[in-house]
Amino acid sequence: MQQNTHTDFEVRSLDAMCVNESRLQHKWYYNIKYLVLGVLFGIVFIKSEVVSWFRIQEMFRMQSFHMYGIIGSAVVVGMISVWLIKKFNIKTIHGEEIVFHPKKFNKGQIYGGLIFGLGWAITGACPGPIFAQIGTGATVIGITLLSAIAGTWVYGFLRDKLPH
Amino acid sequence: MDFLLQPWPWYVAGPLIGLTVPALLIMGNKSFGISSSLRHICASCMPANIPFFKYEWKKEIWNLFFVFGIFLGGVIAINLLANPNPIEVNPKLAAELATYGITNYNSLIPEDLMNWQSLFSLRGLMVMIGGGFLVGFGTRYAGGCTSGHAIMGLSNLQLPSLIATMSFMIGGFIMANLILPFILSL
Known about the structure:
The complex is a heterodimer of chains A (164) and B (186). Chain A is an all-alpha fold. In chain A, 62% of the residues lie in helices and 0% in strands. Mean pLDDT of chain A is 88; it is low at 1-14. With 186 residues, chain B is mainly alpha-helical. Chain B is 63% helix and 0% strand. Chain B has helices spanning 2-5, 10-18, 20-28, 36-45, 61-80, 91-98, 122-142, 146-155, 159-184. Chains A and B meet through helix 1, helix 2, helix 3, helix 4 and helix 5 of A and helix 2, helix 3, helix 4, helix 5 and helix 6 of B.
């Protein structure tokens, strides 16, 4: 059991996306605030047409500034926010210190990144927009989502054999 | 109200998306990242004794609430705030897509390409199943997607995220310009 726990830690530490630093235990309904934030986020996705397959095609054909403007301004606002949080040592609403995770480089970021880029340009959706697309009534995208889940599973299955 | 119904310009939408980063951090120390949700679904439904899916996924359940919210946001936006006009795209793109029989701009996705009938054609299969698989496999291999690397990672000045983001873009350019025309002409 000890060893299992250890493996779990190592696997998770390589995947910085999947780290939850909060040590606080909350009831399930505390998660409703993330649902509300998701709803707002989904509305912005639709209204800005970020989830539009056509907009993604325009981006990769360099025919529109729209997507570059969105990603660029989102990053600038994110950077300023992170800088402010660090500078003023801003805490969470529960009074916890906010923790950032340095990411380690591995070759997966190149190989996986290229593979994801190929898929992004075909489906016109990254993992977030897929959920919003389904919400707009494009039920067939549910199949794309299932396929993406299958892709994640196959990655987990092959993980040890892939170059990182 | 009229403004709400129009497509929102990038300088409104981009900063709002960027604000998700501090919102998640301040709400509960969560790093912005959406593709992890796919991993949590695997871990909760079919871990199959694979070490990569053996972790305490219940601790990350906020992520599933978040993506369910994105789905609901799609439902709300399309029913209450829908843009009454067809999607406007660059005329060069429209001309190119027309040569592949894609002329319907009523939805955010190309209905001529992505629908239940075409799911069983070679073209539809490659686009919807093949594309989805690459998205799921690639994001996890890269350790994140546009939200985790391009937005959260770059916001925190992480070099690996810059490398990942550049790889996303290179993959996208190759697919959209070199491979997708072939798939669409099937």
